[in-house]
Design goal:
By secondary structure, this protein is of the alpha+beta class. The chain has three helices and eleven strands, in the order H-E-E-E-E-E-E-E-E-E-E-H-H-E. A six-stranded antiparallel sheet has the order 1-2-3-10-5-8. The longest helix has 27 residues.
């Protein structure tokens, strides 16, 4: 019996460098070719129509699966005037929003900011933030670094067959490495 445990331990030890090498190889085999994403197109998932905090449409432009989780880029078409996200925290992602059309109000920590077409805002990880759409319509480019699980969050929200309760929403945030810490930002 001791001999079997010894052999199992030895095999485990000798396999470790190969597993590590496999992970390095995956990083080295990363996509080496660029790609174009046409305007109005959502890669991988098509148009993601949200339910819950708003009914906006998200298009994945660069997926975390394209970048080994290093980066994600989304285009958001905003159709929910007066609505936005609850005050929440991303534990491991920084976010950048670039307003392409319309007007928004953002809260970052204790500060509020009014953004209009052409403005950008940086939301550091682990800092509570929220945004609300002020204009009737709008469009933003959203960049996350690293990608995290926000893409999965959007896909999950879009797949619901009902409007989620506040408790369901909070659980979806938790399941995707975010945390709701307060109500949405009022305009």
């Amino acid at each position: 019996m001791k001999r079997n445990k010894f052999i199992a331990a030895l095999l485990s030890l000798t396999a470790s460098p190969f597993l590590a090498l496999s992970q390095v190889k995956n990083k080295m085999m990363r996509q080496q070719k660029g790609f174009k994403i046409d305007a109005g197109v959502g890669r991988i998932h098509g148009h993601i129509k949200l339910k819950g905090v708003n009914v906006n449409i998200l298009d994945v432009k660069i997926s975390g699966s394209d970048t080994d989780g290093d980066l994600a880029v989304f285009e958001q078409t905003s159709l929910s005037q007066g609505k936005g996200t609850p005050l929440h925290i991303h534990h491991a992602q920084d976010e950048i929003f670039y307003v392409r059309e319309g007007a928004y109000k953002f809260q970052v920590g204790n500060e509020t900011f009014d953004l209009t077409t052409g403005d950008s805002i940086f939301l550091p990880r682990q800092v509570a933030h929220a945004w609300t759409q002020v204009s009737e319509k709008g469009k933003m480019t959203v960049i996350l670094q690293p990608a995290g699980k926000l893409e999965n969050f959007f896909v999950t929200m879009a797949s619901l067959d009902h409007e989620p309760s506040q408790k369901e929403m909070e659980q979806m945030f938790i399941d995707n490495d975010m945390q709701v810490v307060g109500p949405p930002l009022k305009v």
